[in-house]
Design a protein that fits this description.
By secondary structure, this protein is α/β, with parallel strands linked by helices. It contains 10 helices and 11 strands. A 6-stranded parallel beta sheet has the order 3-2-1-4-5-6, with helices on both faces. The structure holds nicotinamide-adenine-dinucleotide.
């Protein structure tokens, strides 16, 4: 039985918790929950068939074989370091939190624990992983989101952009993945993972486009290198509870957990 603790009981965390207690209950047990907003943790607890403990981050790590983060990029540096120092596996979905904290990867290599970063809302990362064995020359991401999927981003406030007033297709942002993560920390995690797996956060180019006509969160990814060229398009439905989060990101975390629990690993 893999003992799992969950940090973050929102859109993604709640679905992961249900998958553990309902779908994977022969191989895994949800032992603890944690959320900065206790009401969210209590709401999830009331809905679950199993009753994990509500614990702080420091309390839950020693009780777990795997800690799953579905909370915020702000907590990545602390959470991942604490788990790896305790030789506890960790799965993190707020990938933007790794940009500027690349030492965490070195720490993971030295640790007995594993660090998992699921593909999230972006398809085609299997090809990026394979291509990276040789040489990737360039990586580009064009993200299209409806205005409500970008709401609350620090970039909009800084540039004085009222996202509700946008009435036609508009390029909101162009820059490096590093700049994109800073500008849209909750909206562009996929740029972080693409950059970590390809040419790095300074060289990966990101464009963000919005329009009131957009219904889906779409990501167009282009990489080029010795292998040739790959272009993918993910057209994701936003989660009903959180329009910033694509439903595919939720499914990706559950698929990552399934892979951890299974002896058969399909795909690169
Ligand atoms: N990699 C990807 O493709 C991808 C896609 C979507 C979302 N994300 C990221 O996943 C994370 C979760 O997304 P979501 O849609 O579930 O968000 P959400 O807002 O629905 O839920 C987040 C939950 O985490 C809690 N939380 C926030 N900070 C915390 C902290 N420091 N400690 C404990 N709990 C904390 C919040 O109270 C909330 O309950 C976000 O950081 C989001 O940016 C990644």
């Amino acid at each position: 039985m893999l003992k799992i603790a969950l940090v973050g009981c929102g859109t993604i965390g709640s679905e992961i918790a249900r998958a553990i207690t309902d779908r994977f209950n022969k191989d895994a047990k949800l032992v603890a929950l944690c959320d900065i907003n206790e009401a969210n943790a209590k709401k999830l607890l009331a809905e679950l068939n199993e009753k994990p403990e509500l614990l702080s981050l420091d309390e839950l790590i020693p009780k777990s074989d795997l800690v799953i983060e579905a909370a915020s990029g702000d907590i990545i540096a602390e959470l991942v370091k604490k788990c790896l120092d305790a030789d506890v596996d960790v799965m993190a979905i707020s990938v933007g939190g790794f940009i500027g904290h690349e030492e965490l990867f070195e720490l993971a290599e030295k640790s007995k624990a594993c660090l998992y970063l699921p593909s999230g809302a972006l398809c085609g990362l299997d090809a990026v992983k394979a291509a990276g064995i040789s040489n990737i020359k360039s990586a580009r991401l064009i993200t299209r989101k409806p205005p409500r999927g970008l709401k609350g981003a620090p970039f909009l406030e800084k540039q004085n952009i009222d996202i509700d007033k946008i009435d036609k297709e508009t390029v909101i942002f162009q820059g490096s993945a590093k700049e994109a993560i800073k500008a849209f920390p909750k909206n562009i995690n996929v740029a972080a993972l693409l950059s970590l797996m390809s040419v790095g956060a300074d060289k990966t180019k990101v464009k963000i486009i919005t329009s009131p006509e957009f219904v889906r969160n779409s990501h167009q990814m282009v990489i080029e290198g010795d292998f040739g060229r790959v272009e993918t398009l993910s057209e994701n439905m936003p989660s009903p509870n959180n329009p910033k989060t694509s439903y595919l990101a939720v499914l990706s975390c559950i698929a990552c957990l399934k892979q951890i629990l299974s002896h058969v690993k399909l795909g690169t």
